[in-house]
Write a structure and sequence with these properties.
alpha+beta; two-stranded antiparallel ribbon; 6 helices
Length: 215
């Protein structure tokens, strides 16, 4: 990334998300060989905000592998989505009539990929969600929170009472979305590559999530 592009990104972050976001981008730019992911957990979902009242009319379902395959051929999904479906991962789809509102994927295994070379082993009562997407026409209305509420309800019936996800610290839009969905930060994960060596540190700040570990 050029210096001009970096300054443009920092300026955009300041305008959209404030000075703290700009400072995080500056720090990340200065530490080019270091990455940080914030860890979030959801134990008790929040009630839907008034703006998401329409979500009660939405239809939720887990997409079948055949649907993912058909969508991949139509350009709705990508080959990585198809591969995830082949491996048994599930995708909760949220629809408004025939229109796609959004989707969220949930991992099948308790051993989850976070970044290159880094996996986390989750407690048995916890499910890992990832690849959350909301159609631009439906953003800002709390529909992501509705999807998290529905996913939590469905997985609770399978013995998974908590949801877990990770967000790169510079992905400010996603950070805002997961917080609005009721997720709370429970820790962070740092990785540094320097001189051919990799150092990873995991910090859990919430006692209820201390079972998270790096194998």
């Amino acid at each position: 990334m050029s210096l001009r592009a970096a300054f443009a990104n920092i300026g955009a972050a300041r305008r959209q998300h404030g000075w703290r976001a700009a400072a995080i981008l500056i720090r990340s730019a200065l530490r080019r060989h270091s990455w940080r992911h914030d860890l979030f957990g959801l134990t008790t979902p929040r009630p839907l905000p008034p703006s998401a009242a329409e979500a009660r009319r939405h239809h939720f379902r887990f997409a079948t592998p055949d649907e993912i395959a058909d969508g991949c051929r139509a350009g709705v999904w990508t080959p990585r989505h198809m591969e995830a479906a082949r491996q048994g991962e599930r995708c909760l789809v949220q629809s408004d009539g025939d229109a796609l509102v959004g989707y969220t994927w949930v991992a099948r295994s308790p051993l989850v990929f976070v970044m290159d070379g880094v996996y986390l082993s989750l407690p048995d009562d916890t499910a890992y969600q990832y690849w959350s997407y909301t159609n631009p026409e439906y953003r800002g209305l709390g529909y992501q929170a509705a999807r998290a509420l529905e996913l939590h309800r469905r997985l609770a019936a399978e013995g998974k009472r908590r949801l877990f996800l990770t967000v790169e610290c510079t992905n400010f839009a996603s950070l805002k979305g997961v917080r609005k969905s009721g997720f709370e930060k429970v820790g962070d994960l740092h990785m540094t590559r320097r001189g051919g060596k990799v150092r990873v540190s995991l910090k859990i700040t919430e006692e209820l999530w201390c079972e998270l570990r790096r194998p």
